[in-house]
Amino acid sequence: MAKGPRYRIPNRRRAEGKTNYHRRLRLLKSGKLRTVIRASNNHITVQIIQSKLKGDKILVSAHSKELLSKFEWNANTGNIPAAYLTGYLAGVRAKKNDINEAILDLGIFYHKNRVLAAFKGVLKAGIEIPYNEEFFPEGLEERINGTHIENYAQLLKKEEPEKYEQIFSGYLNKKKINPLKINQIITNTIKSIENKA
To answer: Is the pTM of this model over 0.90?
Structure first.
């Protein structure tokens, strides 16, 4: 370990690789609201934050758990469609609070596709955030609307019915969801968000 009178221990979050303070300072100096998207293994959180000297103020927040309790979503809350719906919910709430623009604050970029799906949801709700279209990978739209789940379920049901029952047992037995109709469930949840948010 370095020693000496001029050695300075870096901030804990910088040492852990969690915060890039130079980038954060640039974001704060812009004076714009920040759209913060964070993903864990099972959930997504989308917040619109105003930076203040005494600390950040959360103006709008949406968590994927809310989809289960309030908006008729009964599938997994840690997948790409759920991330998109959570972003859309945050965007709709922001519009109702007269928030029309923000900048994106990604922080550490874990679970890339889910974070980008949530970002797409915020954009779909009508919040203006500068971005480059090349930022999104090919096929993200198909994953957002659940087509990849439906196609895989259809293939398995046709070719390996036992494996289909095993892989989708959580949907079929516990949650009583037809994996061949995920797209319809997503559409219903979007309508529910528009009516209730």
So the answer is: no
